[in-house]
Design goal:
Layout: H1 2-8, H2 23-28, E1 41-45, H3 50-61, E2 65-70, E3 85-89, H4 98-105, E4 110-113, H5 126-147, E5 152-156, H6 182-200, E6 204-208, E7 212-214, H7 221-231, E8 246-248, H8 249-261, E9 269-272, H9 282-293, H10 304-313, H11 317-324, H12 332-336, H13 345-358
Parallel strand pairs: 1-2, 1-4, 2-3, 4-5, 5-6, 6-9, 7-8
Helix pairs in contact: 3-8, 4-5, 5-6, 7-9, 9-13, 10-11
Length: about 350
């Protein structure tokens, strides 16, 4: 876990564990930023997780104060921003009730809820644990945030709620939802509860639905693909010219913080789709990673129907859809609202490839 934060320290993340800190002490750290907006106090759950850690880093970079809530005890580096961060280690998230969450959120203007169960190997009872962690935990945290007077609750959901199969047109904020996996169903259930809470309280709900997230040390299939490219594994995707939306982790984190900073909106619940500017094919993903790694990609030409049949035969239907078919998001509403993704997918993946040379 320390390695995650060592890499983030390069982006001016520095913090320390502070025991017994109070809301009043944290408020003393708040100051008007040089860019002219009022610095906020933002609580981040899942602060030592992959996306949560980047949210903490980006909020500090934007000169906000942060309450970082995590099951991990994390102590790192510099003193420059230590007064702007209060690290709160908790036990099992499932054991935290509304009263405890309320106390932890006191004084915060926004909660970024990044705590979640993701990318676990399927085991007995995993569906129930997924629902507990991603729906019940979210419901308790949101109700507590409303009770604590939090202005806005930003929820890291997932574009997996749209299902595994793509549409002829890109999915947007109003597209029908069709969650297939236990993870997607738990996020779908959490969104439904948040809509109820948003309608019942004055707290604004912001739901972010990112697609596959990539970045240095990201979990999931894309990182496995990158390692295969680096090892020179022959990959049968030379004929795969599909179009899939993905997103850099820095874009997700900056979108979450942007959501905290944004002016008040009329609706009680807002949905945004943070994604890279253009979708990308599996073949182009491999080529971009290889350019960054300075290796020649070993792409093999296999007819797409044969490749799809082979994957489905071994029980990898979802993987076949992910690697071979179109699956696109329309993030234009987010752009019109004033947020722009920082990178194109090919550039982002090439930069990711370069990081493997520096490891």
């Amino acid at each position: 876990m320390g390695a995650w934060f060592a890499s983030l320290a390069k982006a001016d993340l520095g913090h320390r564990c502070v025991a017994g800190s109070t809301v009043q002490q944290t408020r003393l750290a708040l100051a008007r930023s040089e860019s002219g907006f009022e610095a906020l106090l933002i609580a981040v759950t899942g602060a030592s997780g992959y996306i949560g850690a980047h949210c903490v880093a980006h909020a500090l970079k934007r000169e906000h104060a942060v309450i970082a809530i995590s099951t991990q005890a994390v102590v790192t580096a510099t003193s420059r921003v230590s007064n702007a961060l209060r690290w709160q280690q908790v036990g099992n998230y499932a054991d935290i009730d509304v009263a405890e969450w309320t106390e932890r959120f006191l004084g915060a203007s926004t909660v970024i809820h990044a705590a979640a169960r993701v990318h676990r190997r399927r085991a007995q009872g995993d569906d129930e644990a997924m629902l507990r962690d991603n729906m019940q935990l979210t419901a308790r945290a949101a109700r507590a945030a409303a009770a604590a007077g939090v202005r806005r609750f930003v929820f890291l959901s997932s574009a997996a709620v749209y299902g595994d199969a793509g549409n002829d047109a890109p999915f947007d904020e109003h597209s029908a939802l069709n969650p297939q996996s236990a993870y997607a169903r738990s996020k779908f259930a959490a969104e439904a509860v948040l809509r109820e809470i948003g309608n019942e309280s004055s707290m604004q709900i912001v739901i972010l639905r990112p697609p596959v997230v990539y970045g240095v040390n990201a979990p999931g299939n894309l990182s496995r693909l990158a390692r295969a490219v680096l090892r020179g594994v022959p990959l049968p995707f030379a004929r795969v010219d599909n179009q899939r939306s993905i997103v850099a982790v820095h874009t997700v984190a900056s979108c979450a913080v942007w959501s905290a900073e944004a002016a008040a909106v009329d609706q009680s619940v807002s949905v945004w789709l943070p994604c890279d500017r253009q979708p990308i094919s599996t073949k182009s993903m491999i080529e971009a990673l290889a350019r960054g790694m300075r290796v020649a990609p070993k792409l093999i030409s296999v007819p797409k129907p044969l490749l799809s049949l082979g994957l489905r035969t071994v029980g990898a239907k979802r993987l076949a859809l992910q690697l071979l078919e179109d699956w696109r998001l329309d993030g234009s509403a987010l752009s019109r609202a004033g947020f722009e993704a920082q990178v194109d997918s090919e550039i982002g993946l090439e930069l990711l490839g370069r990081s493997y040379n520096q490891a």
